[in-house]
Amino acid sequence: MANGHFGGGDGTKENPYLVEDAQDLNAVRHNMSAYYKQVKDVNLISYGNWIPIGDHINPFLGGYDGGRHEITNLKIIALPPFDTTVSLTNLFIGLFGAVGEFGVYREIFLKNIYLENVYIHLPDMPDQHPYVNLYAGALCGRLYGDIVESCYTSGIVNIGNRANSVGGFIGVARTQAVKNCYSLCEVTSGRDLSRKYNLSVAGFIGNFRLGTITNCYYAGKVNWKLDNPDEQQQQLMSLWVGGLISGPVSTNSNDVIVVNSYYDREVVGFTHTDNGKGESRSTHEMKQQATFENWNFNTIWGIDENESYPYFIKVIRAKMKSTPFPLNFRKMRLVE
């Protein structure tokens, strides 16, 4: 175990730092422009309240390759530290908080990250913090990067009444590509309409502003609520809810392209027209290989016909026969 000193590497893209344990993963925040590769499963159980890696002042500007190893027991139950004296604070919640920065051009990526048993549960914000906006997703709160590839999340993302953009995978994103990813997180979000801010919530990406999503899916439940709803306040606030993705741009702009990506409308809990920004399917259809057009079921994806959603080949995974929620996962086995 490297215990925060990494197992090797020099942080370059060609020779990334090697992440061996929870202390190593936590140490990523000390060099935000380096490149990392995870070489062992990491259990974050010792971190009772994980501080997201990267914020709006100091975002993560490197690359993280999870190496197809698991990260388990990510838990966030309180807000990260922030300045309560400023007029507006944007907080980014997830394993990574803020990834990338608008106008910064370098290779920024997240790939092969397997997040199991995520528990993000933030209470409603008290009145003394009226100008906090939350952007939350299990993987990261805000993404301005090149690519997210071959990642998945499972667990719970439950954000209180100051949410702005919330998803089971990413909160808000502007990126070149998200491909071969999925989320099974149950998402719960709300907004106090008296604060007159927007709310975007979706199972996969809460607010997808720019980029392409290819071969991704969502199979979890989406819950949303509005506090203090009256007619005047609703006129001052916009609400976007989606199965796969949501947001004001994602539903109207050609800058957002979604290809062969789906969500389970029965599990999500509502019927929503995504206008070409994701396709709804029944639970039965989501467990049929034929549903997933042009997906690679030879080297990337596997599926147990009529029994499971698609999963990554050669990983320890849960057999999702009846429900995708992590607390009901069946016995895990190694898929050869």
In short:
The chain is mainly beta and 336 residues long.
What does this structure look like?
The protein has 336 residues and is mainly beta. It has one domain. It has four helices and 27 strands. It has an 18-stranded parallel sheet that branches. It is globular and about 45 Å long.
As a percent range, the share of strand residues is 35-45%
Separation, N- and C-terminal Cα atoms: 27 Å
Helical region count?
Answer: 4
Helix percentage = under 10%
Q: What structural class do the secondary elements suggest?
A: mainly beta
Walk me through the topology.
Layout: E1 17-19, H1 22-27, E2 35-38, E3 42-43, E4 63-72, E5 75-76, E6 89-93, E7 96-99, E8 109-121, E9 132-136, E10 140-149, E11 152-158, E12 163-167, E13 170-179, E14 182-183, E15 186-192, E16 199-202, E17 205-214, E18 217-218, E19 222-227, H2 231-235, E20 239-242, E21 256-259, E22 262-264, H3 265-268, E23 279-281, H4 283-286, E24 301-302, E25 311-312, E26 316-317, E27 333-334
Parallel strand pairs: 1-2, 2-4, 3-4, 4-8, 5-8, 6-9, 7-10, 8-10, 8-11, 9-12, 10-13, 11-14, 11-15, 12-16, 13-17, 14-18, 15-19, 16-20, 17-21, 18-22, 22-23
Antiparallel strand pairs: 24-25, 26-27
